[in-house]
Amino acid sequence: MAEGVNQQPAVKAGVSPADVGGGVRTAVGGAGAVFRLFLEVLRGVFRRPFQFREFIEQSWFIASVTILPSALVAIPFGAVVAMQTGSLVQQLGAEAYTGATGVLAVVQQGAPLVTSLLIAGAAGSAVAADLGARSIREELDAMRVLGIDPIQRLVVPRVLGMMLVAVLLNGLVSIVGISGGYVFNIMLQGGTPGAYLMSFGALAQLPDFIMSSIKALIFGLIAGVVASYCGMNPKGGPKGVGDAVNLGVVLTFLLLFFANLILTAMYLQIVPPKGS
């Protein structure tokens, strides 16, 4: 009599609880490492000697790779916002507030986000690539052996430079975006200069511009810290540098949108709308 063959049940391919737990631990550990780097950067700002020359050089480099793209993006962005908001307010019968809606959309949301995305994409990738190349060449370890803190020497000037340029670019994008929206509103939507400016003055207030600058400052800080962390911790040699750059850009984008949500909610709760 033939003996029956015991067949083992097939193991279904999938994600095990151990894999999920490992991923969560890795994410939490990475978040903690980024926060620790932020604290070290904050401490390094007040340590002497301050690397002023490195700060100027990095600020100039960051500005040189972001000014032209920011201006080119701001023109169509302001025009699109003006046309879209203008069309909506006209459908609602509030043509008198076309200028205010377009300007506030650019100042409160558009300019900080456009600036931060360009800072993260252009400057952040360059910073991550530079620090990653130094890391795989063991320059950072050599600096530590010589008693030089690479965070104070390299990271702090780059983070402060990204914060400074982010605030300046935010003003540039706001001006260019508002100007582009103004021109398109007058030329394509039949608006008048007086009505555009009057509606802007009726709803806009000084805290709107202050909050826009604060957002840009915080976004520049986030982009600088994340790019520096990813650049200082590449894995896998030269290929790991490219992976670190891509990871830094993606993480920065996610954190920027999350931070924008929190800052916007806080602002709307603290500062009441004008005329309310």
From TrEMBL:
It comes from the Bacteria. One of its GO terms (cellular component) is ATP-binding cassette (ABC) transporter complex. This is ABC transporter permease. Keywords: Membrane, Transmembrane, Transmembrane helix. One of its GO terms (molecular function) is phospholipid transporter activity. InterPro entries: Permease_MalE. Pfam families: MlaE (PF02405). The keyword DNA damage does not apply. PANTHER family: ABC TRANSPORTER PERMEASE PROTEIN-RELATED, PROTEIN TRIGALACTOSYLDIACYLGLYCEROL 1, CHLOROPLASTIC. The chain crosses the membrane at residues 20-39, 60-83, 113-133, 216-232, 244-268.
